[in-house]
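Ligand-bound model needed. adenosine-5'-diphosphate.
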Amino acid sequence: MAARQSILGRAGIVLALVVFVFAATGPIVWLLLSSVLQQQALTSIPPDLSPSSFTLANYLEVFSSAAQLGRAIINSLIVATFTTALAIILGAPAAYALARLEIKHAGTILLMVLAAQMFPAIVIAIPLFITASKLGLIDTKLLLILVYLSFNLPIVIWVLRGFFMGLPLGLERAARVDGASPLQTFLRIVLPISLPSLFAAAIFAFIEAWNEFFFALIMTRQTAQTVPLAISAFAGQYQTMFGQMMAAAAISVAPIILLTILLRNTILRGFADGMLKG
Amino acid sequence: MPSIELIDINKSYGAVHVCKGINLTIADREFVTLLGSSGCGKTTTLNMIAGLDDPTSGDILMDGRRVNDLEPVGRDVAMVFQNYALYPHMTVAGNMGFNLRLRNFSPAEIHERVGAAASALDLSHVLDRYPSQLSGGQQQRVAIGRAIVRHPKVFLFDEPFSNLDAALRNRMRAEVKELHLRLGVTSIFVTHDQEEALSISDRVAIMRNGSVEQFGTPEDVYADPETVEVARFIGTPQVEILECVIDRSNGSNTVLRCGSASLPITARQAVALGTRTEKVLVTIRPEYVTIGGQGTSATIRDVQPTGPSTLVKLGWEGSAIMARLNGIVRLTVGETAHFSIDPMQLMLFDNESGRRIKTKS
Ligand SMILES: Nc1ncnc2c1ncn2[C@@H]1O[C@H](COP(=O)(O)OP(=O)(O)O)[C@@H](O)[C@H]1O
Ligand SMILES: [Mg+2]
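Prediction:
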């Protein structure tokens, strides 16, 4: 009886995992599939999956009009990398200070950090646009980095603060007895043992910056255009080039998927640490 | 000059009063143990001495100087933590040398000091390993090594052996004691294990509920406990506490009636009891109880052979007592035995306060 129950239980778990895997990979498979299908095959119902309707034409088209997408990818790489680096460099010390040091009004500071990103984007978009254009920052990567930092930094601070608070106190006490200042303790003890969690937070910030559409749409024109905008450009005024759009999208998610696969052990460890100890 | 003085130390976490007026004076080069059951405030007290925690009130003096506002490094204390707290991303050498590197010692000096500590602690062959590649005993020794390379003024140990098995614990005890004899550094050692405390210390401070119940040599706290709690806490096996009424009905010959048994007391004890009429708490160390011949009759409740001696629990209506007999003694549980005590060795305590009723000598 117990054995049968556990078999049923396992079947349930396996079923749930199968459903989850389909839900998670479905869109990506669909994305890849539609990027290699001809437009008619894709839009017919049901889609025509016969070998003759497969093509690499979409990718060739995208690459031949590549100037646009190429620049967008470089822009996105620069913006996402700098956003991520700054979010971690500024966020990690702030998170540690808020987690461990006796800081006056720490609660208020934390609430303000959180409040900064609670406003709906649409509410701050217009004043932000006006300010940015007065400063001459419209259509610059610097502006995008600053804007993305404003919502990535709070998340990084909150996530890492939770992680740091969950670290057992022993090592930091030992470092203090050894004569380390709070900064030395942070740099030489806490950071090295927190690398997996820092990686996880960094990946998160990178993806946020890489995928952001709304502010990029408002704050850029040509020079600082990012990948999501370049992809949307394939939705033309008269006709949407689905296949090319999908090919461009596939190219743009590739770095993130690659990054995630390469660093999956580190990321999993980071998230598990954050959850177990947080 | 005393090395360390705690003067009226109180510590509260919010509404929780953890340390209640602790006073301790620790001599230079002394090895002192804070002994008490879990949660009585030992770690909190040690952390305040280390400078990791601030007392809510009271002064901490080292070499006569108030150090309340000094960081641990300013107090020149080294500490060994209960779960070692080794830096997982540094090698053994890195762990031991970290505090020297922070103080900008030359690499040659660091190498020499770490090497010396490692060879004293039998760690020379694992200097390049990481903590996760060491056995529990080796990790423990690295933690001690990290403390001794500094040549500090005070060693603090917080239950350093509680994660080791019994054999290793005994060996580490001997090593720490030997280390103390060799280096002569004032040491404060926290443990909940009374045998460990008695075997290692010059003096033991027995803590209970955030207060120091008694502070004395191992011999003193065993043979001359000031409270019934100390008598109960120190010594293996734990003594039984008898509740007895004072019976003066037989003229000058006062006796204690403990349940159905009656125990003789000495004239001095009778004087110390004075005119009190309420119950008293009574106990006696098992080695002063003998079985055989005449004496009070009781039932054998339990027999525990320990090798060099045999422990026997004797019971009667309303009470029990432990006896320690030399060598192996074959007795049967449930049978009747007669025991007698050495009245000189009876320890009497006030029923209300638990304080010792002392005989004047
Ligand atoms: N940071 C803290 N906040 C609140 N209570 C604490 C804190 N540290 C210790 N305590 C409490 O103080 C008491 C004594 O703790 P501790 O000194 O660690 O005891 P011991 O080391 O003797 O086992 C315990 O009841 C514990 O719950
Ligand atoms: Mg403790």
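The domain at 4-233 of chain B is CATH 3.40.50.300 (Rossmann fold).
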